[in-house]
Design goal:
Largest sheet: 5 strands, antiparallel
Distance between the termini: 28 Å
Structural class: mainly beta
């Protein structure tokens, strides 16, 4: 956090993975976010942000999108600007999903997947996704607006065996 009771400001969620072996279809992983209203923080999202989209108010945007995992460092980067987020938003859930166009793939099939969440130079979370190796998608973070209005981070690693569209619809449900 940026200081006592100040909450989060701008947070970066970065996703990395190694390219698939030569001759096999590329692995395509995506960072996705769901924004939930104060009146129904576990209901349907007010909106979703995923590849080729951004939030209507510009507070969440995908800075980098990869379909292969090729490149140096992190392949996909999503920026969330909590200081600018409207007051009627109470919860944001961020996840990672594997596109299933080339057949069913799970995180265990992808070489070196990992997600890093940080605010500035402060690392909030770093996860290799090994605990969800049998999943096709996973939530990685939950951001919640506290009673004071400050945003808080909670690591939330939960695996799902759903396709991309079904995962995006289900990722904001309360953990069972």
């Amino acid at each position: 956090m940026s200081g006592i009771s100040k909450g989060l400001g701008t947070v970066e969620v970065a996703l990395r993975w190694d390219p698939s072996p030569i001759g096999s279809p590329p692995h395509d992983l995506d960072v996705v976010a769901g924004v939930y209203p104060a009146g129904a923080p576990y209901g349907p999202p007010a909106y979703r942000v995923y590849f080729d989209s951004r939030s209507p108010d510009g507070t969440i945007h995908l800075d980098r999108d990869s379909r292969t995992g090729q490149g140096l460092g992190y392949d996909e980067v999503m920026t969330l600007e909590f200081a600018r987020m409207p007051a009627d938003h109470a919860r944001v859930v961020v996840g990672v999903v594997i596109q299933q166009g080339a057949g069913r793939r799970v995180f265990g099939d992808v070489a070196n997947p990992g997600v890093r969440i940080r605010q500035g130079y402060t690392e909030l979370s770093h996860h290799a996704l090994s605990t969800v190796a049998d999943a096709t998608a996973a939530t990685v973070a939950e951001f919640v607006r506290g009673e004071s209005g400050a945003w808080e981070f909670h690591e939330d690693i939960r695996g799902f065996t759903l396709g991309p569209d079904a995962f995006i619809a289900a990722m904001g449900a309360a953990p069972s």
